[in-house]
Amino acid sequence: FFEAYEMPACKTQLEYLEFINTFPASDTPEVFGLHPNANITYQINSAKDILDTILNIQPKESAHLKGATREDIVSKLSKDMLKKLPPIYIQHEVRQALQKLGAILPMNIFLRQELDQMTVTLKVVHQTLHDLLLAIEGTVIMSPSLKDMLDSMHDAKVPEIWRKVSWESSTLGFWFTELLERNQQFVRWLNFGRPKSFWITGFFNQQGFLTAMRQEVTRQHKGWALDCVILQNLVTKFNAEDIHEQPPEGVYVHGLFLEGGGWDRKNGKLTESRPKILYEPMPVVYLYAVNTTSGKDPMLYECPIYRKPQRTDHNYVGSIDLETSHYYPSHWTLRGVALLCDIK
Questions:
Q1: What is the CA radius of gyration of the chain?
Q2: Residue limits of the Dynein heavy chain C-terminal domain (predicted)?
Q3: DSSP classification of residue 143
Q4: pLDDT tens per residue, range 257-282
């Protein structure tokens, strides 16, 4: 994949050894078909691992630092978070709002499921923050789970008890900001109708969202069967703020980031990454469904979508087709090109 390496034209063992000694001490990403930007990602991950190790071996006992202990710092943070936390949903009000929207419509059923999960998250966060404050004051016993929560919040990490009912995030600040933004999208949808463009990052179950959209399109066409309806997409040239109307069918989504490649907005095609740009914000993507069993264009790159930068089966959402320029789709497979719902 990289032209700088040539086949050896040697005859003796000594010549082979001398040839091997001309190799660089470390290989560049191009050797493996990756973009040079991949080296930046590697260095960032290495530095993060070192810093995480340093944090993990720090003493966890209370120590005075300019007059403030760990408990004082976390107590102040907990009180600030409790002030900013949105109220827990009132179930009968949610049911009434859903009835007005159409409770049996696929997208509204999906919204109800998302609201149920957000309610669980908000209840856990409210309760554990109150318990932690009581434990710091000495009113209740500091249990092992509360102690872990105290340590995590002091290190700006998401407590394990919160992560289990919500989502992964690199820092506590990013996680809490996302909580507020997710809640805001749900409240607007519930009270003012479905958004013109959906922030796909703000869902617990992105696969459920895409399935609900397919069900909705299937019901709009008599004789269509859900098993024969496949997802199709069109990458627009617009940003979320430029969308003022809903599509006749399907949905507009925004908030996706392209990793491993760049995006040519003018021509609507994949290009090489720009130097030092690790994540390319994508314009609004129009997702819809068609009733077909025919194959796809082999020149389209089937780009996987993941919830988070950790590309595991747990974070896999699905895939959409992207047009490519100058290269076959296999080139972008080697580049590791993927779409991420969130880069934090």
A1: 25
A2: 45-341
A3: -
A4: 999 999 999 999 999 999 999 999 99
